């Protein structure tokens, strides 16, 4: 469980690093264009639009990452349940087999 948490934190750090870099570079590019006089319009509206766009990208990537982690967790739990079921069936078999053999032997001796 601890290993999975470390992996998740590492995945999140790797995810946010490029997204934050893109957001900063696009914001600074918009400011340079606006300060150079090439952009005609509301700079704050453009900044909000860019921030919303990258926020949406970040949310989509986060959703994808969480879906991936959820799938990994489900596979891990399925494997654990299968292993537990197999072990329980083996234990039942060990306990029941001697009883079945003794019943068969006793029925054979009566014949």
- The residue-averaged pLDDT reads 77
Give a short account of the largest sheet: none
Q: How many separate domains make up the residues?
A: 1
So what's the overall shape? rod-shaped
Low-confidence stretches: none
Main features:
rod-shaped; 111 residues
Describe the protein's architecture and organization.
- This protein has two helices and no strands.
- The two termini are 58 Å apart.
- The chain is mainly α and 111 residues long.
- It has helices at 2-36, 43-110.
- The mean pLDDT is 77.
Summarize the SSE layout with pairings:
Layout: H1 2-36, H2 43-110
Task: Please sum up the structure shown.
This protein is mainly alpha-helical. The chain has helices at 2-36, 43-110. It has one domain.
């Amino acid at each position: 469980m601890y290993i999975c948490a470390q992996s998740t934190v590492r995945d999140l750090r790797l995810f946010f690093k490029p997204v934050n870099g893109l957001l900063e570079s696009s914001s600074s590019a918009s400011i340079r264009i606006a300060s150079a006089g090439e952009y005609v319009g509301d700079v704050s509206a453009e900044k909000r639009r860019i921030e919303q766009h990258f926020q949406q990208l970040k949310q989509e990537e986060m959703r994808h990452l969480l879906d991936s982690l959820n799938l990994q967790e489900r596979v891990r739990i399925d494997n654990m349940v299968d292993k537990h079921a197999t072990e329980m069936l083996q234990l039942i078999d060990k306990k029941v087999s001697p009883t079945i053999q003794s019943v068969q032997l006793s029925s054979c001796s009566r014949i």
